[in-house]
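hi! just following up on the protien thing from before. the input was this:
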Amino acid sequence: MNRPQPNEYPAWGETYISKVNGDVFEILNDQTQSLPALFRANADKADYAYAEGKWTLKEMLGHIIDAERVFAYRITCFARNDQQPLPGFEENDYVLNARFAQRDLEDLIEEFIALRKANLYLFKSLNEEELNRNGIASGREINVKSILFIAAGHIIHHISILKERYHVV
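and the predicted 3d structure came back as:
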């Protein structure tokens, strides 16, 4: 699948789409194993935040799970040609109200795996027409294909943050 064109997504999407190099479905599938492996290898840092007011590793994973759900919902709505505008989501409020710090890291890891695997069935079922359908999310037009790339790039983005700021290995 070709990379989405800049006119197919809002400017903020470039942050994530630009990080996707290769087959987006392979990347999405590989992340089902690579992201859990990264968190498991750093389980001793589950409650670590690199600075005051920053998310812990568990909160970061919780945010990734929340974003995955939002992306999948948007993909479902737009692929099914639902023309209702969808709201944005405030990631900091979601994390603040989710109690991820009280959750078990392994449970969060398993939740991500189950969610991504389920979403892959949807993602891979989409045909060219569905991938090119547009919708409005957060007040901006975007197409389904772009959201797939954003979902993959979002995780790549957070893995970079985990390595740079949390010093995970």
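The chain has a mean pLDDT of 97.
The helical segments are 14-17, 24-41, 57-79, 91-96, 105-125, 128-131, 144-165.
cheers
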